[in-house]
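So, read this over?
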Amino acid sequence: MILRLLACSSLLALVACGTSQPDDGIDTDAEATAAAASGTAATSLTNAKGVTSLFIKEDPTIDPTLTAKQNADAVATQLQSSVSACATAMVTHAAGSTTVAIDFGAGCTVASLGTVAGTVSATVTKTASTISIAFTFGPLTVNGRSLTGTASAATTNGTSYMFAEDLLESGNHVTFNGTAVLDANGAGVTLDGNGTWAQGADPAIALTLSGVHHTFAGCYADAGTITESKMVKGLRGMLVAVTETVLFDAATPSTGNVTISVNNVKKTQKLPAYGTCPHP
């Protein structure tokens, strides 16, 4: 018994006697902070989706039975309607061509997206019964957040799309493949799929987005989860497998707070602030 007590006291700083730590020697505070940074990936993806929704409504704008040129004409008509209240926006499209472009100028308020400035172009193609629209952003800003990169939307029925994004947004590199379904009122989007996130020059981290809902006017997502799995160096110097999940709730857009699970440890963490966010 004495020997066991001595052994326990000598190991107390590392592990409780007869048990194992739930975090396996991980700095959960540091990991929660890192996971919170990746939580803004939903905002980056939503900003891009919001801009593409000016070109394509899922009501539908696209008709797969028509040619690429005919669909491009429809996209141009939809875009012109979407930005009709923006005096500085200039839509460029030659009837019968497959390209549509817009220059928002120095910036104007566009419906639920907020202030948008810069340029976006889109090219429509058709393969068999699939219509694809390839977008190029930038330089572009959406509510003060810089956005460059590409996105693509593909549909066989005009109402449901497979969506892909490869973005550099405010210094962070985000990719996504999955679905990005517009709300019925067009005010937001629900993201389901896989992607990656890299902050600055850091290595990319694999992400899974599940039911992540984000209004275009909101500071952050208001439902769903982002899960990342990675290897990190533990407090003992060993590589440890870590699963981190960011849970958004209805209060997140106004408070910036999310619940982050690092393996079995849960913490409340604030997402990085930007512009005037978070705000009520």
User: Anything to note?
Assistant: The chain has one domain: 25-270.
